[in-house]
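FAQ

Q: What does a record look like?
A: Structure on top, sequence underneath. For example:
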């Protein structure tokens, strides 16, 4: 088994159409994948059709951004794409994303870095996110790369940053579970916390229904993996892994990056699939 359980398509802020993403994954020898677009399940149908054609297993997923000053990302696996309440929730989140991007554009203009909202939406082709604003900044000559645009204009504290409407972890987890999914904490090391603080929060979120943790991710250094694995084991959490692939132009990350370290991949993926069946 070769799996990557965290990837993005043009349904949110990825560079590849959902079917093209499946073909790329297949070409790299992946057999189990999850499409986890931000606040959107719009790419799942197209990805599922292509995955079936290629003989791959696709887990329908989503990534929800929680918190305010510090972003906490929750992955939802196995969500029913036909769940009306969850679809309506995602639609509201996408509208909030568009309004947030519009405010970013306005702030950037006041800072002397004008870009067009029309172009941001064209780049998005779906749910708008900061990477699309960043790409528009690069096109307009205000930044040398997407990462440069984030660093100079779009990170918290920078002139173009706009905080998102806060979503509590408890609500994200609850909505995922109500839609037939399993909630997993994404890339915990990106939270930038000490081990004691992170351990405390994970225990709190588990009590709210969190079922797993993304142990294997490019942001987790080799020396941090023992702590993450031990924490997951102690808390009785599912272990997952994903590259967080958006496309090479958006992030310098390739499919399956960092996942060669996932020695228990087969048993962990089977446990996740069993947990999804258990929710349903």
């Amino acid at each position: 088994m070769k799996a990557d359980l965290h990837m993005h398509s043009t349904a949110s802020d990825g560079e590849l159409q959902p079917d093209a993403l499946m073909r790329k994954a297949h070409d790299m020898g992946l057999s189990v994948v999850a499409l986890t677009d931000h606040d959107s399940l719009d790419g799942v149908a197209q990805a599922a059709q292509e995955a079936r054609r290629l003989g791959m297993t696709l887990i329908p997923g989503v990534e929800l951004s929680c918190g305010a000053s510090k972003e906490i990302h929750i992955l939802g696996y196995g969500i029913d794409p036909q769940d009306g309440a969850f679809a309506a929730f995602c639609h509201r989140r996408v509208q909030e994303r568009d309004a947030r991007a519009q405010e970013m554009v306005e702030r950037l203009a006041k800072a002397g870095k004008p870009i067009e909202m029309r172009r941001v939406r064209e780049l998005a082709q779906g749910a708008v996110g900061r990477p699309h604003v960043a790409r528009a900044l690069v096109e307009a000559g205000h930044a040398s790369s997407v990462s440069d645009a984030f660093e100079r204009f779009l990170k918290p504290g920078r002139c173009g940053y706009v905080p998102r409407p806060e979503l509590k972890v408890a609500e994200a987890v609850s909505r995922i579970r109500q839609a037939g999914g399993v909630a997993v904490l994404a890339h915990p090391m990106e939270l930038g916390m000490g081990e004691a603080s992170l351990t405390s929060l994970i225990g709190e979120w588990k009590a709210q229904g969190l079922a797993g943790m993304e142990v294997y991710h490019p942001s987790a250094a080799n020396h941090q993996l023992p702590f993450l694995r031990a924490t997951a084991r102690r808390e009785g959490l599912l272990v997952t892994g994903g590259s967080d692939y958006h496309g090479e132009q958006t992030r310098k990350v390739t499919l399956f990056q960092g996942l060669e370290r996932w020695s228990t991949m087969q048993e962990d993926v089977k446990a996740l699939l069993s947990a999804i069946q258990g929710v349903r």
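Q: Is there anything notable about this one?
A: The two ends are 24 Å apart (CA to CA).
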